[in-house]
Each structure stands twice: as C-alpha cells, then as structure tokens.
C-alpha cells in the first residue's frame, strides 16, 4: 500500500459555536461543509486549511456531553495537531492579540526550528512549527 497524504483529522468538541469561532475566525480555517446530523444529534463541521494538494481537512464533531479529554498529552490516542507557519513569533503575536495564550517559543531539538503550543477551547494541544 502506498498512502499519498493525510486527508483529514477528526476531533470531538464540547461547544460547537465556540469551536467554530476558534477554528474559523481565529485560526482561519475555511468552512467546506456544515451539517446537523439529526440521527446522531450532533453537528459535523468540515474545515480546510491550505490549498490544492497541500490542503488538509479538519472534521469537527460537536456531540452532546462528550467525555473530557485526559489531561496528559502522553495518553494513547491523538497527542496534538501541528501547523506549519512561516514565522512562529508573528503567529504567536496574532494569537495573543486575540486573547489566545501560547507557551514560550522554543527550538525543536531535532529540527532546530522554532515551535510553541497553544490550546483549543476544549484543551486540545495545538502546535505552531516553522
């Protein structure tokens, strides 16, 4: 088997409107599809970042009363989502202007590139990486 690329990543959120605002209005994702799934009593929001062959979709499922995320990022399962940016310092400044705090910028010990973490409204770790 030869996999071409990651098509999408799916996450579950606790507050649909808050998460939609965060990912669309603050991080700049583009809405591809938005559907209320009556049979599951949840919202499914498909977002896109990037263009063409570099585009990746983020599927957001807003379910009523999902279990809380474990507080350790080292637990089995999704650890974090990482986004490539040209300038970590500029991206951090933009996030902080929107009231979104970031951890101190540091160098990735393997790539020697600048990186930092911040969190979505449900505490999912998100990384910025040059």
Automatic annotation (TrEMBL):
**Native species:** Dorea formicigenerans
Lineage of the native species?
Bacteria, Bacillati, Bacillota, Clostridia, Lachnospirales
Gene3D superfamilies, alphabetized: 2,3-Dihydroxybiphenyl 1,2-Dioxygenase, domain 1
Sorted alphabetically, the keyword list is:
Metal-binding
Protein's name according to its UniProt entry: VOC family protein
Q: Which CDD domains match?
A: VOC_Bs_YwkD_like
What InterPro entries does the entry give?
Answer: Fosfomycin_Res_Enzymes (IPR051332), Glyas_Bleomycin-R_OHBP_Dase (IPR029068), Glyas_Fos-R_dOase_dom (IPR004360), Glyoxalase_1_CS (IPR018146), VOC_core (IPR037523), YwkD-like_dom (IPR037478)
* PROSITE patterns recorded: GLYOXALASE_I_1 (PS00934), VOC (PS51819)
Q: Which GO terms describe its molecular function?
A: lactoylglutathione lyase activity; metal ion binding
- Domain called VOC: residue spans: 5-130
């Amino acid at each position: 088997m030869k996999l071409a690329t990651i098509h999408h990543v799916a996450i579950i959120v606790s507050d649909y409107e808050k998460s939609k605002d965060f990912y669309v209005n603050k991080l700049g994702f583009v809405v591809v599809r938005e559907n209320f799934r009556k049979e599951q009593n949840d919202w499914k929001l498909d977002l896109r970042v990037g263009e063409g062959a570099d585009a990746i979709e983020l599927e957001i499922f807003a379910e009523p009363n999902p279990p809380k995320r474990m507080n350790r990022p080292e637990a089995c399962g999704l650890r974090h989502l990482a986004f490539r940016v040209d300038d970590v310092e500029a991206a951090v400044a933009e996030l902080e202007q929107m009231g979104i705090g970031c951890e101190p910028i540091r160098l990735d010990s393997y790539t020697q590139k600048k990186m930092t973490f911040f969190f979505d409204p449900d505490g999912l770790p998100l990384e910025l990486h040059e």
